[in-house]
């Protein structure tokens, strides 16, 4: 659907999508590295520096790319692929300066200008600007949530775990940073446990920070590690307030996921429960109750109800297309519509409905008003007549046979009962629609009556 | 409904169901024993060994059985009972190798080949493969959830408790295993409390492990037991992250259960509240308000509303069957339909509706348009006329009597008011449907008018 | 409604209700005293003994009373007041033996037979049988929840608080009982803090028990009090598992309460939001948008929508009664229906609907098809005509005047626009129903046309 | 809309709203200062005294103002601006004495009468009366929640944070007050950590109180600070019970916010999922499936469904106004309605509906019954004919062209297929309504047929 100008990339282009997904992988690294480098500045000028520079380069390339990506206009739903419009839109939005600021490698720039690495805290905090990139992860998740190829449950679950892990990691790093900058090392949460912690391994420190962070988040609070000085207490107050919100967020999300997954089961239980109650209060015989239950369970399995809803929402032309595909072949093979014009058939099929019937269920009941007639698509039904309260089997129908057309064409109460022998699919045509359509096509009407009389 | 070939078992066979339920009992044992034997390897080669072998044997039998169990095809909803198809389906699925791997008694096999029990950790972990059997418990629960014979609330509640207990048990055993394999016994969570814990009773250790596990899960965290070394801290981090999810899962499930159970009460409250509000804002007299409230409460008790919905979803033939059962006897005994043909009656009943009326409520109001007439099924009503604003009781009706048929047949405003004397069930026939049906049966129409004139 | 036999009490009798509510007050005492007397057996043979005996006496009286209380049959919804049936139903149910067992004062009976108080634990546990009385509190709450005179929110809130407080109290008492029966007093949760705690004041012990109980329930777990020996640990495991469930129950209940209270606000927001969006995407002029918003907000205030739903669910006779009350007086005073027969008016009112219109809103639009006409009930409207795109005010209507009847009676497009001047209530009569009703009453039709021509 | 008498302020007056919002800012100060002054009485007679007096003065002014603010009568929805009624309503309500009591500066009054500041606790508690002002904040939030200009999520979120912060602050201050009034300073929660805490800095004390408060609220409970004496334990019991409720409240609110925000995504997923399932079970060709999906996604983007619902709820005159605005211009430019009377057009537009169609979707299908015809508003469609199963493009339509009118006017099956070329908006006119309207306007009918024949 989306043809764009030369040198412009459609946002739905497969290759651009892959590039975006690749960038999200780099975002995960940035999300981990930014707080980590704040807490342990040694690594930011050491082992992680080249990795950081490469990652920054990729995001730099993306900034340039963005000037060539078409966008969807929000009011007309049309794709804008004009170079100038794209450029103006990006350059004047908030995103552009933030993207730039989160990509510049401040420390390396400083080093180039001054010839040496700075040890000041400022670069650690400037590094945190890279967390702006997290918006990409957030966008990815909200796109995946709408993508039915993936389970909503697991996408949402992953998102929750990512948010939680990032929260724990960031809080842990910040807490370590506070301890590392306190004057008296013994008076810190970690220093009171491990003497001379600053010269120990980076991983030991990171590890203790994570442990404290998670004990606090999970509100377990064993008490073996706890804030010792005022700065730590202030930070812990903030972190705990945030945790109350995060916990509520996790629980709220979990609730909606569980509600979603339990909905269908509950609807089925409810339907069955109502049938049973109705049968009990009206003292219906066991046979009728069984039929009702079998129908209910089949309906939920074949999700027939939902299919009706699907069709209702579609425009008429698509509905006609579907009906043609499903029923035209079947109806044109029945004896009644032999030689009927295609016009008539096309009009008929758009009013037909497919229904599943479980085994041993009455489709038509003797003596009832003829409101519909049926064509058997698959399965098997038998035609019965009830005389002196004794049922007699008259015939068995095979796919392609019609049921109930005698009542409809002669406008008399149905002369026979029709009952399924096993799971059967039948196509239903309403008496009312049939009459309406046939009346407008006199020639076809005659042919149908001829076919009918011949068949009798 | 389900006839299958010889030597093939239907999945819905009662005996197969019992066998499956019996296996779930063994699954409970496996779920408990697998982590326990990892933590306390002595028992796995000692007292629990014969039990394990017997349990494994049962699951071995089930693997063989599965080759003879028919399955339901997911696209046609038909039972497949072809031996070859069943075998291919099972053997090529992931389940088969997993079932085998979770059944082989590795330790005994090793013993047979090497002549002695191995003390390596590998068998403890191989034992954990048996947890694959938990899928059976999960299947049982999801089947029970759909079974209306059991309360959804309690099934779900049991599931929650089982999941929680298994989580606590598994975490406790794993935590003990970590302590038992740490070099310095004093530097473990249990060793710092109980000296020489490894040579104490198995149950003391299990017991401490469970206590620590549950204190952490419930996020109480007294602090009397807490992780001491790095391995324990890592494991605790993982367990706490899992606990956040488990707690959210428990709360989410509880929420949906409570919402389900409160729904009906809230709907009733809402309905009553709206009636009261309507009566207040329109300043309706007390009598009318009482009638409205009585009707509302009765409706919720008899759940009349839901019955309509039950019928709507059913195919026409079942609906007709129900109507015949409920109303044919009543209508054939009324004076109006004496000698009427069964055809007419069958058509009439399919359009009838049963309604409950609380005591002292007007069923028909003098001078209103005749839209329906009624047959009294149970209870008692009185016929009133209002002259000069004074009500006069004309007659009392007994079950089987008709109300409102004068207005309908003569097409004049209802000449009388009909009011219930106590809780009454009436069957309603719509004027519109009555006219439509009688017009198509001229003979019956004459008979009905004769009956009517005779009765006057 | 409920007349019962002599010496039989209706369950809805006001005096019986008061007695039941009084018993619930005693239940509160029992719920507190039973666990308390288990923990502190001194009080059960001391100061609380007479109170217990009096309370038991009251419940004994209730057992006798229950033999005289009619009950509602669950299948017929009729009140059964037959002495024999009532007695058989109560005596054969589970309730009777449980009521007896929870009322007998075992300790006093023992004393009478043996001449001295027993100090055995068995009486403390027999006392716990009295907790069976809690079912009365549970019944009261479920009745109150359905009673619209009380706020659902607060009833449910009280229930939650009661359940929580009882849980805390019972767990605290049980925990104290465990400590008091441990061999080494110093090795208990309380003995390690307070030496010789058993000979201290009862209230000090109760108070520590409550503190520990609540610290554990709230999952705060400071760690100043924690289980010391194995029995305490087992009990704490059980209590914490229970707490996980209780916390989830509290949160689940709170969620449903909040959802309930936020529903209405969210529905209003949603409606306004949709109007704004519709107006924006279709670029509607400001005037139309204002009219749409004003209408939406008024509708939510007057809850007009819900009123329609209230009426729909009611049987026809009640609906007619309401319509007569609301509209008969208004319509009989209009010029058009002067001298019209009451029959006609009664039929007309049952098809009338009251509507509120905000100020400056068009009720009828010039040139539109005449589908309805209106009677002004309160407020003020003006009649306008638009010529050459200029609006001219023709007249102002006062309550009792009709609008739009010219278009309806002559079956021509509405000649005038009708616009409200301030908040107005109008009664709407549908063209279709009006024609239908008037056609069946020829005489009235003539009179109406005469009135109409005279008025022109 | 709201004109009020002289010297009376409308409650919706912009300036009055600003004044109210300004007072809420002062309420925030009062909410913070009242508990703070209780805990640290030094500041209440010192640095904060002048601020308190100024704030009190503002609230004093508001009391006087309230006597001049009109109110909305709850039963008539009319604004009451009678001086006497306003004064009586305010003076006789509970609010008046509470407003007075929460405004009087008791301490300053005492000082004026006795010449010196009192140091008694009573003034600290009298100060707490100022918390009555919090009702203003509560009112502001419930008004903002209904205001669609602000995001419901963030308003509710702010409210939660404010409630939580106030709870933490008040509990912390009260807890400090308890410690400060305990006889033995070492036996208090703070005294056991900081010796001589009463003479230390106010901020240190406040800060410890906040830390303890939040550790308890978040149920972390490290155990470094915990209640030491009985009074503190009692207070902590109460605070923890309150916290259980507050936590449940936070989680419940979060759940509803998340449910709200996820609703739309879930509805879209559900719709797509059903389409896919329907296509799969019926083995529809890929082309039809694509058309269905494209339509579904477009519908969610243009929110067409909701627009229909918006219109349904509005009164007829507003609906007509909208239809005139949207469609009158378009229809009057089509060849078919040239020279047609404005009456006819006005009636037609009220039955027209706008629909969006995605690219390459069939609007009309050859041979289907003519139920609607269309006018192209924007986009482009092509007219096709299918002969011998080969599609032939006949013509391309531009905005303003009609589709399907041939079938409708001649009452024959549609002769052509109409398919969109890109995203198109079409206006649909139902065959049924068109016939009905044209039949009542004979002259216009002739003109339309003339136009039609001329065009052919």
Walk me through the structure.
4 copies of one chain form a homotetramer. Chain A is an alpha+beta fold and about 450 residues long. In chain A, about 60% of the residues lie in helices and about 10% in strands. Chain A is built from 18 helices and 10 strands. In chain A, α1 runs parallel beside α9 (about 150-180). The relative contact order of chain A is 0.06. Chains C and D meet through α10, α11, α12 and β4 of C and α8, α11, α13, α14 and α15 of D.
Principal-axis shape of chain A: elongated
Structural class of chain A: alpha+beta
- Quaternary state reads homotetramer
Radius of gyration of chain A: 36 Å
Across the major sheet of chain A, the strand order is 3-10-5-8
The helix count of chain A comes to 18
CA distance, first residue to last residue of chain A: 54 Å
Reading the helices and strands of chain A in chain order gives HHHEEHHHHHHHHHHHHEEEEEEHEEHH
Number of strands of chain A: 10
Portion in beta strands of chain A? 5-15%
- The average pLDDT of chain A is 84
Helix content of chain A: 55-70%
Low-confidence stretches of chain A: none
Largest sheet of chain A: 4 strands, antiparallel
Specify which chain pair forms the largest interface.
Answer: A-B, 74 and 63 residues
């Amino acid at each position: 659907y989306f043809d764009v100008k030369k040198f412009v990339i459609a946002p739905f282009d497969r290759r651009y999508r892959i590039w975006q997904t690749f960038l999200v992988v780099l975002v995960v690294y940035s999300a981990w590295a930014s707080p980590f480098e704040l807490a342990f500045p040694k690594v930011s000028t050491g082992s992680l520096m080249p990795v950081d520079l490469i990652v920054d380069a990729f995001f730099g390339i993306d900034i340039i790319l963005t000037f060539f990506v078409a966008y969807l206009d929000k009011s007309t739903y049309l794709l804008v692929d004009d170079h100038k419009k794209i450029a103006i839109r990006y350059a004047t939005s908030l995103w552009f300066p933030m993207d730039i600021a989160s990509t510049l490698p401040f420390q390396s720039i400083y080093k180039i200008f001054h010839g040496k690495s700075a040890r000041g805290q400022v670069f650690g905090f400037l590094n945190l600007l890279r967390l702006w990139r997290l918006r990409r992860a957030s966008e990815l998740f909200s796109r995946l949530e709408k993508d039915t190829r993936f389970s909503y449950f697991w996408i949402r679950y992953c998102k929750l775990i990512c948010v939680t892990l990032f929260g724990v990691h960031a809080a842990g790093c910040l807490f370590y940073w506070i301890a590392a900058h306190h004057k008296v090392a013994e008076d810190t949460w970690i220093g009171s446990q491990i003497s001379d912690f600053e010269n120990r391994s980076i991983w030991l420190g990171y590890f203790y920070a994570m442990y404290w962070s998670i004990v606090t988040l999970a509100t377990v609070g064993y008490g073996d590690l706890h804030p010792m000085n005022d700065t730590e207490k202030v930070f812990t107050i903030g972190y705990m307030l945030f945790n109350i919100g995060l916990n509520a967020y996790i629980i709220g999300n979990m609730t909606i996921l569980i509600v979603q997954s339990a909905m269908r089961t509950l609807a089925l239980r409810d339907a069955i429960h109502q049938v049973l109650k109705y049968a009990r209060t009206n003292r219906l015989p066991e046979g009728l109750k069984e039929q009702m239950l079998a129908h209910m369970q089949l309906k939920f399995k074949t999700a027939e109800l939902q299919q009706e809803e699907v069709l209702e929402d579609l425009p008429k032309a698509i509905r006609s297309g579907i009906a043609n595909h499903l029923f035209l072949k079947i109806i044109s093979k029945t004896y009644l519509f032999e030689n009927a014009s295609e016009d008539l058939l096309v009009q008929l099929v758009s009013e037909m409905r497919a229904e599943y019937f479980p085994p041993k269920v009455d489709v038509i009941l003797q003596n009832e008003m003829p409101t519909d007639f049926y064509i058997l698509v698959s399965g098997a039904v038998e035609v019965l007549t009830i005389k002196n309260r004794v049922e007699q089997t008259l015939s068995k129908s095979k796919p392609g046979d019609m049921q109930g057309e005698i009542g409809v064409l002669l406008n008399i109460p149905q002369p026979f009962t029709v009952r399924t022998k096993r799971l059967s699919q039948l196509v239903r045509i309403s008496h009312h629609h049939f009459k309406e359509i046939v009346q407008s096509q006199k020639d076809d009407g005659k042919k149908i009556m001829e076919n009918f009389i011949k068949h009798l």
